[in-house]
Design goal:
single chain; about 130 residues; 4 helices
C-alpha cells in the first residue's frame, strides 16, 4: 500500500495491485480512515523520529554516492547538504547543523569521503 501525506493531515492510499487496471484509492482525515487494522503514523513526526529518518537517508545517500562523481553531482550534493539547515523542521537541530556545515563543509570528492565526513558530522551533531 502506498501513502502520501500532506501538511493538512490528509492522506491518500492506493491499494491497487501492481499492474491492475483499476485502483481502490481513498482520501481521509483523522478517524475517517477506512482501515481499522492500519494505524496512521504521527504526522508530522516528532524530532527524534525525523532525526533518525534524516540520518538514515543521508548515510544511505552517501553509500550510493558515486566513487567518482561528476562536477555536477558534487555541486548537487553540496547544495542538498547546504539546504538542509534552511528547511529542516527542528529549528534547534537546523541551527546546530548549519554551524557544523560552516565549520566543516561537505567532502564530496567520492563516496568514501562523503561517508567519512557524514559520520564525523553525525557524531558531532546527533
Amino acid at each position: 500500500m502506498m501513502k502520501a501525506f500532506s501538511k493538512g493531515g490528509k492522506f491518500t492510499t492506493d491499494t491497487s495491485a501492481p499492474g491492475s487496471d483499476h485502483s481502490a484509492a481513498s482520501t481521509a482525515t483523522g478517524d475517517e480512515h477506512a482501515s481499522s487494522t492500519e494505524q496512521r503514523p504521527q504526522c508530522p513526526p516528532d524530532t527524534a523520529e525525523i532525526g533518525r529518518a534524516t540520518w538514515t537517508f543521508l548515510h544511505t545517500t552517501a553509500a550510493y554516492y558515486p566513487d567518482a562523481p561528476t562536477t555536477s553531482q558534487q555541486t548537487l550534493m553540496r547544495c542538498m547538504m547546504g539546504a538542509l539547515p534552511e528547511f529542516y523542521p527542528c529549528r534547534y537541530c537546523a541551527s546546530h547543523l548549519k554551524e557544523q556545515l560552516e565549520a566543516s563543509p561537505p567532502q564530496v570528492a567520492s563516496s568514501k569521503e562523503l561517508s567519512s565526513w557524514l559520520c564525523k558530522i553525525h557524531n558531532e551533531v546527533g
